[in-house]
Amino acid sequence: MKAISSAANPSYRSWLRLATHPRETRAQRRTLAEGVHLAEAALAARAAVEAVLLRRGARGRDVEGLVDAALAAGAAGFELEAALYDRISPAEHGAGLMFVVAVPMQELPSRARRDMVFLDGVQDPGNAGTVLRSAAAAGIVDVLAGPTTAALWAPKTMRAGQGAQFRLRLHQPVSPEQLPQLLDGDWIGADARDGEPLWQASLPAGPVGWIFGAEGAGLSAQARAVCTRRVSIPIDSAVESLNVAAAAAVCLFERRRRAFTSR
Question: 190 - beta bridge partners?
């Protein structure tokens, strides 16, 4: 493995931009996947691992096995000084292992006949990544995101997604106005302030597109205009609303529950 001890190294400067500027993942078409779990997910999905970054002194059978597997598949190997590695790591106490992974190009669906998710201005990368994790667990294939949503492939979003990005087709940026052409079905917005209670709502038998809005502002006017209907989750009156990631999980698994009980 090649040792890197200077922050002036051109490759390191590129990785630093990925770590500190989330939307740089779109410009470079690559991201940083930190930790054993994400490394395992990347290899299991046969993602294009361009480089292995190892923190000097990092050890462990799991780490060494993943390094060997990535190098055998053609990735370049780099050992970074601890201070350099820590500067680009999204985890304060990580495993000392990071993959540089190419972001796949995905074509937008056309009149798809399967459920999908649209993130409308969800700006927190932790929330965005957690929604992706729930979407993958609920069997969603396509997740779309507006231009003001956190970058879905950014390192912090990757860490929250825990490998979900490798199991989904991600499309960003997508505007709400594009949504009707992408799904052969209804778009339903999660609206804490003005929606029909989810438990009482009649969900379509056909494909559903779920729209989840910004943490504070909720759905944008453009997203509301696309919705066939809006639903809310009944919660205790002392609480204003659910976190968007929690709301998404409730909606997606209520949909999945009904699909199972109707069989």
Answer: 231
